[in-house]
Amino acid sequence: MPTTAKPSLDKINNVQALRGFAALLVVFGHTEFALPGMRPFGTFGVDIFFCISGFIMAMIVDRNPEKFLLRRCIRILPLYWTATLGVWLLAVVKPQWMMHTTPNWRDLLLSLLFIPFYKGGGVDPRPVLFVGWTLNFEMYFYVVLAVCLRLTRRHATAYAALAVFLLMLACRFSGLQSAWARVYGDLLVLEFALGMGAYWLVQRVTREKALKLRRPAIALVAAAAALMIMLQGLDIWPYYVHRFFLFGVPSFVLIAGAALLSKAQMDTRSRALVLMGDASYVMYILHSYVLDGFDRVLGPRMPLLHINRLAGCVVSVAVVLGVSVLVYHYAERPAVDWLSVKFGTRRIPRAEVKDPATTMA
Questions:
Q1: Does the structure show a pLDDT above 80 at 102?
Q2: Half-sphere exposure of 18 (CA within 13 A, CB side)
Q3: Residue 230 in contact with residue 169, Cβ under 8 Å?
Q4: What domain range is 230 assigned to?
């Protein structure tokens, strides 16, 4: 007799692999290489990242929310602060290399504290680290969720989703033009809520039902990925429609479908894909500087290796992958593990991990 119980989602290698896929998309997009008949695409990987972040936060709250904000800071701060300080010091030593970064203390302090600001007269809020604008969204979401956890664990994710929605409305209709109002009033904040919704949706599907939904899930995952590539790559993105609807909603479908396949025993067993997901944060933080260095050094000497050419794109993306895995393995992971032990948030040793999801917390 089949059970009607709703077991927990106990395999999420698919979601971890999607993190790597999202990071790789962003790297590919920033090479500005375009396939024949298409425009450069891939920056929608950020939308996938935001939805995955919401998914993972809902999972953490559901399983082990103890010291939530501290654990998030240990995971995010070491690499981000190191990279931010590195870029700032580079602006001090080699200002001619930096286009929009000036080495002033105000910008550095605001960047390290994740406080949105307009850099160098720009029209969009940007910290010292170019790609760090997404971390301003991430830390905002972490803080809101941490506050909600102080109120209630059971409904924390629902309260957090409601809070970011109401704050978004308040900022959008306040008429304020400050950097923080621009960030917190952006519809992108709702992509975190979509990710949380994906987690709770899949949690409520029984394993038996997930097995029956495998083919539709595969079709939805493929369709969502193809839709985002076509919208951006074929330049059929109607720019009067916010990216939340064009890329956030398909990202929700992509992640929910991938997680559903995990529950249906179609979880990837590829160590390479999971490793790429593990190194995705490093890849995202460092990729633009690795690409720029690659293009500056090799591009003038070998034109085929300019990153917007096919050979240069392939080789430079491979270099970014290699550097990211090395930095993750020899620097980021040891630093996070050491801090986790020091501050009492130590993760389960990898040899003891039975649930791949625990490696993402």
A1: no
A2: 34
A3: no
A4: 13-360
